[in-house]
Amino acid sequence: LLTDFHFPEDFNAIPVSMEAKDFIRQLTRPKLFKRLKLEKILKHKFFTGNKIPMSLNKTNLVSAPTGSFFP
I need a labelling partner for 15 at 20 to 30 A (CA). Which of 8, 9, 22, 43 fits? Predict the structure, then answer.
């Protein structure tokens, strides 16, 4: 079974981490048998890269997110 998935031309310009982009690429490989298995998904750098901040600024708790992804 093959898929007809492709990234938009400006995909690399999207402000998303390289780990996230790699994760998406590996989950959407055209051939199913080449896609990440559950065990490898859970060990992917997207989940294990320690990018989660240890603390948040108080303004993060009271203001809505902004940016091109939020109207």
Answer: 43
